[in-house]
Predict the 3D structure of the following.
Amino acid sequence: MRLLFVCQACGARYFPPTAMAYPDGTPASAVWCSVCRAAAAARGIREPEALAAVAMLLAVRALNAALAARARGDRAARPDVRPSRPARTRRAARGPGTRTRLG
Ligand SMILES: [Zn+2]
């Protein structure tokens, strides 16, 4: 499993390479996605080191929590899946117009 980061400039979630360097040799950032990192580099803005350290720490903790939850077979760790429509009851299956037609 790979570390998941949230870009602090555009809010996108991104998976940088595990080696934290892109195939073209540019370093990956824990703070910005590749697009925002390139834009910041073009403007001469350096990655804030403290923010990068915190982002890396949070990503590692989130990954460890997800792995621990998976190892426990934790159902609560799964995303909350709710039905897209209410359950059909016997009354609802008859349709909404039944009562008015009889009455
Ligand atoms: Zn971005």
User: Anything to note?
Assistant: The longest strand covers residues 5-6.
